[in-house]
Amino acid sequence: MAKMWAGRTAGNTDSIADDFNSSIHFDCKMFKQDIEGSMAHAAMLGAKNIITSEEAQALIDGLAEILSDLESGKIAFDMSCEDIHMFIEQELTARIGDTGKKLHTARSRNDQVALDLRMYLRSETEDIISLVRKLLAVITDVADTHKASIMPGYTHLQRAQPITFGHHLMAYAMMLLRDIDRLADCKKRMNISPIGSCALAGTTYDTDREFEAEKLGFDGIALNSIDGVSDRDFCAELMSDIAILMMHLSRFSEEIILWSSWEFKFIELSDAYTTGSSIMPQKKNPDMAELVRGKTGRVYGDLLGLLTTLKGLPLAYNKDMQEDKESVFDAVETVKMCLQVFIPMIETMSVNTANMKTAAQKGFINATDLADYLVKKGMPFRSAYKISGQLVSKCIKENTVLEELPLESYKEFSELFDNDLYSEISLEACVSKRISKGGTSVKSVEEQIEYARNKI
Does the annotation mark 156 as catalytic? Predict the structure, then answer.
């Protein structure tokens, strides 16, 4: 079948070349944006008397009918068409005749696809932000429930200092709040209209680019027509933001996997978000968390693939840029899928606070507070540090913990120890004393939760 662009060439390409060149099997996702953009373009052509108002209305009515038929399933995409733009134009011309051929006046597929992609990703970015907000709401609720639940905080995956589970969860909340900020900033730069840039040099027609931009909800227009059609930095920026978001989900997933193991047993995931083993009947595997962790690498690959595609392209448009869509679509769909399963997985998990506290007690994570106790009594910190370490070593040998070591044992190391020691090194005291902003005290965690809830 001869192509709409036939002229300089016969328009008859080899069937294998057709398949290789075609993008409709993935850019058909943008049919709604393509039609909405074309309706705005038709309205502009009519308003500027480039075509008659009657022709403009015929184009708009025909496009609206095609949109309705596609959304209802009355018609299907013709996969023999090269791309979504050609399919819509072909369908429109078949319905309203030669007037349909006037739709492409004063535009190119180069600015048309850039427009569709910006509109599509703008909508998808809003959806991702909405999902992150839902996850944040769940995290803050769980954190609120466990703002006083003591657990060990870790460095180097070694028990370090006592914190609360709510405090730990709120660390992820703060990361996700920054993810929202990044996505919102990305959307601002994305929301610039390229339509009217045409192939690369603009057009001889007296168009009104601002009219189309405003009609389509853009904040402004691309001020250089070459830039308008030939850069995909907005795709790379969105994918970078998604990659960072996925990195945060992956780190959270890693901890969920650890916490749900028998070695930790801090949490138990709902059966709805775990699987069993085909051979070991006792297994309850955190497959959903593992898949989120695994799919993070996939999203990284999408980003690196696009950056590699763009890095050597001369201006303006090159067919290489067709490779932008599959990677950015995949990144968007992957993060949305991960968020959709992550939200209920966190919401339905149960928390074993007793195991958390036991782990905190056995980790000697109040040793710093023990040293601080001696410092407050006048001992130099380095001396207090050494004594605290010696006392931890004694506890290990005697299979006990600092809270249960008799006062006489403490006095073997320093006469500064007294009965007030135990209230100073209890895990509850260790947590409640950390009153600095952002710290692990209940009041501080409550402030963090309030801040996050206000932001979302």
Answer: yes
